Amino acid sequence: MPSKNSIKIYKENGFYHVYNRGVEKRNVFLSHTDYLKFLHWLRQAAEKNSIKVHCYCLMSNHYHLLISQTDRKDITKLMHSLSSIYTVYFNIKYQRVGSLFQGTYKARLIKTDEDLLNVSAYIHNNPSKDKPGLNLKKYPYSSYHDYVRKTKNTWLSIEEITKHFVINDYKKYLVEKLNHEEKLG
Q: Domain 15-184 class?
């Protein structure tokens, strides 16, 4: 039986939550440079494959992306390119061999605007879930800063999320979602 979110039937113009983690839950980002290399190659592969990146969060042993595509095969091309080049880089740098990620990436189709907003909040709040009490402003490997207007990466497409909010309301939305999830449990 296939694992949840592993069937790769994509829609044109679809939005997807894409994620993966290190094999055996091992860390896949060991240095600041590792994070920057992954983001550099994500940007390059997204541009090459007509993908829009809306949100991202890179944690030490996994990553989350919220992306959209125009063609049904764009995500497959993006993820193959990104995981291949990053794995080669990582294996050479750290003198290792073999798989870096735990199987094929997972992807889930986003079906509604509410789901889109929930996934963006989940991605941006991920560092706080991993380390309760962590101030999101201090976590550098997330698109959170682009959403609260601290930075602006020109390769990110944040408009699909921010069009639902008045300026600064997205930040409040993230706090509300995090507090609600903590109460649940």
A: alpha beta
